[in-house]
Amino acid sequence: MAPKRDDRTLLSGDPAKQEPEVAVDSTAQRAAAPAPEDAPRERSWSWASRTEGPNLGETERFVERELIGIGGMSTVVRAFDKDLRREVAIKVLSPELATSDAEVERFTTEAHITGQLEHPYIVPVYEMASDARGARFLAMKLVNGRTMEDAIQDAGAMRLETDKLADMLQIFVKVCEAVSFAHSRGVIHRDLKPSNVMIGDFGQVYVLDWGVARSAPPVPESRSKRVDFGAGALRESSEPDPPGALVGTPYYMAPEQLRGLHGEVDERTDVFALGACLYQILTGQPPRLPESIRSILMGKGRFEIVPPEQVAGAATVPAELSRIAQKAMSHEPKARYASVSDLRADIERFLRGSWHLPRVHFSAGSTIVREGEPGDAAYIIVEGRCTACRSDGDSEVVLREMGAGDVFGETAIFSKKPQTASVKALTDVVLLVVTKENLSNALGLNFWMGSFVKALAERFRDVDERLRQMEQERCRTSEPG
Question: What pTM value is reported for the model?
Answer without folding.
Answer: 0.70
